[in-house]
Amino acid sequence: MIKKIILSLCLFLYSSLAFAGVEVSSLRIGEHDNSIRIVIDLSAKAEYQVFPLSNPDRLVIDINNSDISFKRSSLPKPFGVIEAIRLGQVKGSSRVVFEFNESIKPAKIFMLTPSGGFSYRLVIDVARAEDKVDNNKAINDKKEVTKKPLIVIDPGHGGKDPGAIGVSGIKEKVITLSAGLELRKQLLATNKYDVYMTRDKDETLSLGSRVKKARDKKADLFISLHADSIRKSGTKGLSVYTLSDRASDKEAEALADRENKADIIAGIDLSAEAPEVVGILIDLARRETMNYSGQLANLLVQELRKEVTTLPNTHRSAGFAVLKAPDIPSVLLEMGYLSNKDEEKLLKRADYRKRLLEAVVDGLDNYFDQKSLAF
Ligand SMILES: [Zn+2]
Predict the structure, then answer these.
(1) CA of 46 relative to ligand 1 center, distance in Å
(2) Surrounding residues of ion ligand 1, Cβ less than 5 A
(3) What CATH class is the domain 19-140?
């Protein structure tokens, strides 16, 4: 009897060890931009293989060292080109097989990192194989005008307001404009976004008018570019800010005060613009916008950390006037400290800014990929 218990205990331990890896917790399918989007929810990051097979047309998805934890009965029902969905276990890997009634190809495969209450997700977009595209369908698809997300880039300061001054004398407004132009170039090159800049030359702009421009354009996202300067010359690193009524810490509060002074420096009358901002503080729409801004900031930090030095607690919040659009997810990027000799040197270099902004584009791509998963 005891032997039996020990044996079953061993078996239990073995099986739980064998699947100590990743849990495949659910599978979702949706239609997205005329393709099928498959989303597989995972408890942790996993290795995977995705490959198509023909006769019949299938797509095989293997997730290494994983176990399927959801009931087969909760599998989504096949629809459209999907003929059947099967689940299996192959050498410790979970296997999902999609059978299609026409030739397909995986068009896009990527892993999303945790955010918005979701854990890791493997996302696969499946498109019809080109040779089998129905001509009428192709023509109809072309007629559908898909609107690209509009990203507003806001290079901080400008004109009468130089912003922070670097150790070698470089002005923040020069760095932010160069960075803004580079970011625009990179975003347009993806062909996925429309871009509008609050300024593309050296001009004085109030904080309120920057927000207003973004709102008039019905922007999907607002990103303000800055570079800080403080007394402690040793401090360096990038940080990403979102709006909050309460600053995340003293430094964030002091920074917001410095940035919000831009209007005073530029000699702009704040009283004319204040009411628009005040009423916004109780707007319900803001809550959702702030959630999105938070998600966006985290995704940016994730990518930027790989490329550049970041401040501890890289995502911070404070009451920045420029982030107060109630309906547009907004972030403010402090790209680094011009008061730090090394970082100033880096920020003056086009190749460094290019690398930094490539990470920003990756973060923005992840953000819009996640947003389109809202089904
Ligand atoms: Zn600034």
Answers:
(1) 40
(2) 156, 163, 226, 259
(3) mainly beta
